[in-house]
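Whiteboard transcription, Tuesday session. T.W. wrote the structure tokens on the left side:
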């Protein structure tokens, strides 16, 4: 059997393979493209394509695809085989540089939000050479960006790469000011922790709501849930362990650094975290991870649920986006250094993040907004919909001292003068305690915790990179003109802390008192739903910033806002239709049958002897009848609201109706149905209950 280090990355056309299969000249040229963004010349592309094809065929591949990330949130691929007819009736295997660099999928069915006219059905895909090609099944996958013929981005990768470029450009300006003349590139890195549920395929198949919507739309609270806290970090069950083992192997073959795995808080909930990598690679890898999680589950007779809130009353699933910025030399710019100068630089980058999170709270909220994640944010398990940052007491104390010009009495009881003194060493343990903060400093990185488990991490990182690039740009504009750099720097840091400290909060983010303080005293935003936040993507402040850094065009922003709102409306519409269907064809009949049988039993008892008590049956039948009426009434009311929804004048009006009318009506219907479940004999109930599902994997 091969060891992990022998097979790790063996399905990836990585640096090791490039070195071994390309001529020194071609390798050097490709490396320049990868490391410095230099344009690729066609001769080099031809040589790379030939080497890639030979390598892939040797590994059993027959097809290639441009692998991309349209705005559906999942990945897309269209397979072409390598075959090309030869005159003798056979085939030869071909793959050209042109095919590697550019593809032209007929992309008319991908959402474009009006960006692509119907006559211009084709889009094009362009190779992202900074993310390695890999083999999945029998297909060579080439990571690509996806654009319309007019050059508008139709995917998540294009703006992500642009945001990385914006951050690079502004961070380099700052580093030059600190006298660093050698650094060539600054990149952001991400380690996304991925939560998920595993249930058996039998349970999944028996629930139309899970099959159609990814979450349960009905379900009474089970007798045992997560109250015992016995699942978190608990012993992993053999069937789950077998799943994780195969999952790790598949991920490792694809060069994905799967590192940590454990049970989560809820029964049947687990987590997987990779070692962090460059943001665009981490994004590709996270998409692949989600796909492979589902594929391997199927092999084990299981289903992997990536929905943010598959079960009401049970913790939902999120994704923690651990984010940092570093130089090509490997210096983490969010790590406090050992010299006063390094520390001043660290504090400036820290300020850039603080300002970014405050100025663009709305964009960060928007970047994680989906119908699914709306169920999590603000419930007592995930960070609230209000943005805030946790810095910890040590760092908080330093910032306060700088702002007030007062001595800093930290752990070492020293006065801290910026640019002169060394920052006290932070105890990493104290920086990672607060799990209720949406955005926490954890020693040398920030952990953005608002993401939903099914979100592509691209959106969050596009906004994060862009917002931080904007802070850095403002700082560079000021500092480049300053006559006395140190004085200007000190003033800038002081002013930034003063202006933006309202976003810093070290307390319990789940507390209602905090939401009150945040919104009423500090003036922070609280966009509870996707319908509330999404239109603000187009606010002048946001559009100006994103277009100035060339991350989005105005047209792209318009299209994205429309697509995200459409997605919200479609998701909830499917849920509402599924609810109506299940209530009418499964739940109501079950309640009726059980009530009728109970009534018949009571009548039979009475016929036998009128002295036999049957108050219990009577009460039960009465309640079940009330419930049946309630279900019928709520179904009707939901159905007519759904008809009215068709009349909405645009997608914004539709999303508001969804928020204000449809979702509340769905909740009302559910209340009756969930009560019915607690009263109806199990043998009559038409599908597995929460207890059945959550404890299905033995
Ligand atoms: P936790 O206590 O949240 O589990 P870990 O230290 O295990 O914290 O880190 C979680 C994730 O953060 C991992 O994916 C890890 O690789 C990533 N990570 C660690 N350092 C950095 C960094 N400098 N930049 C980005 N991600 C990082
Ligand atoms: Mg974490």
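and on the right, the sequence the group agreed on:
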């Amino acid at each position: 059997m091969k060891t992990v280090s022998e097979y790790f990355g063996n399905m990836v056309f990585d640096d090791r393979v490039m070195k071994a299969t390309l001529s020194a000249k071609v390798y050097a040229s490709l490396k320049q493209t990868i490391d410095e963004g230099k344009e690729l010349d066609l001769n080099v592309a031809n040589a790379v394509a030939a080497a890639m094809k030979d390598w892939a065929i040797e590994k059993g591949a027959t097809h290639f695809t441009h692998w991309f990330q349209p705005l559906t949130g999942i990945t897309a691929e269209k397979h072409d085989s390598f075959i090309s007819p030869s005159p003798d009736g056979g085939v030869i295997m071909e793959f050209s540089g042109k095919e590697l660099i550019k593809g032209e999928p007929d992309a008319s069915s991908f959402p474009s939000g009006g960006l692509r006219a119907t006559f211009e059905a084709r889009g094009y895909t362009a190779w992202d050479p900074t993310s390695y090609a890999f083999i999945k099944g029998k297909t060579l996958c080439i990571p690509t960006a996806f654009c319309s013929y007019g050059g508008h981005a139709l995917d998540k990768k294009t703006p992500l790469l642009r945001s990385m470029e914006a951050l690079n450009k502004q961070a380099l300006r700052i580093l030059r000011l600190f006298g660093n003349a050698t650094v060539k590139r600054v990149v952001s890195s991400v380690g996304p922790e991925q939560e998920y549920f595993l249930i058996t395929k039998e349970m999944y198949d028996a629930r139309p709501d899970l099959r159609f919507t990814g979450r349960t739309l009905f379900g009474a609270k089970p007798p045992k849930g997560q109250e015992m806290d016995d699942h978190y970090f608990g012993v992993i069950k053999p069937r789950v362990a077998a799943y994780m083992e195969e999952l790790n192997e598949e991920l490792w073959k694809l060069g994905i650094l799967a590192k940590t795995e454990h049970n989560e808080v809820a029964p049947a909930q687990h987590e997987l975290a990779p070692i962090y990598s460059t943001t665009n690679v981490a994004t590709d890898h996270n998409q692949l991870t989600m796909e492979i999680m589902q594929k391997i589950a199927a092999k084990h007779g299981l289903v992997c649920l990536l929905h943010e809130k598959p079960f009401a009353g049970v913790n939902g699933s999120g994704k923690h986006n651990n984010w940092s910025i570093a130089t090509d030399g490997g210096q983490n710019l969010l790590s406090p250094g050992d010299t006063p100068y390094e520390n001043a630089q660290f504090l400036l980058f820290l300020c850039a993040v603080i300002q970014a999170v405050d100025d663009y709270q709305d964009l960060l909220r928007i970047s994680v907004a989906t119908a699914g994640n709306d169920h999590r944010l603000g419930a007592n398990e995930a960070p609230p919909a209000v943005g805030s940052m946790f810095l910890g007491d040590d760092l908080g104390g330093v910032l306060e001292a700088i702002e007030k010009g007062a001595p800093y009495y930290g752990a070492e009881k020293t006065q801290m003068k910026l640019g002169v003194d060394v920052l006290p060493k932070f105890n990493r343990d104290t920086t990672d305690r607060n799990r209720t903060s949406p955005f926490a400093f954890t020693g040398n990185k920030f952990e953005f915790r608002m993401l939903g488990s099914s979100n592509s991490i691209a959106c969050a990182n596009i906004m994060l990179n862009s917002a931080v690039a904007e802070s850095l740009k403002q700082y560079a504009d000021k500092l480049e003109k300053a006559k006395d750099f140190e004085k200007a720097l000190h003033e800038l840091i002081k002013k930034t802390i003063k202006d933006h400290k309202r976003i810093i909060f070290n307390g319990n983010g789940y507390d209602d008192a905090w939401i009150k303080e945040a919104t009423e005293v500090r003036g922070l935003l609280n966009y509870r739903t996707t319908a509330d936040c999404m239109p603000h993507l187009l606010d002048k402040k946001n559009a100006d910033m994103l277009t100035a850094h060339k991350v989005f065009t105005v047209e792209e922003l318009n299209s994205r806002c429309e697509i995200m709102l459409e997605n919200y409306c479609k998701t909830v519409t499917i849920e509402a239709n599924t609810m109506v269907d299940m209530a009418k064809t499964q739940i109501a009949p079950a309640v009726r049958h059980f009530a009728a049988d109970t009534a018949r039993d009571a009548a039979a008892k009475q016929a036998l002897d009128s002295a036999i008590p049957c108050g219990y049956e009577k009460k039960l039948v009465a309640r079940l009848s009330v419930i049946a009426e309630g279900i019928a009434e709520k179904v009707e009311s939901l159905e007519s609201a759904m008809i009215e929804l068709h009349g909405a004048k645009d997608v914004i009006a539709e999303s508001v109706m969804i928020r204000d009318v449809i979702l509340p009506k769905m909740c009302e219907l559910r209340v009756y149905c969930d009560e019915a479940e607690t009263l109806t004999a199990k043998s009559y109930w038409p599908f597995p209950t929460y207890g059945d599902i959550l404890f299905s994997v033995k």
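Someone added at the bottom: The first strand starts at residue 63 and ends at 67.
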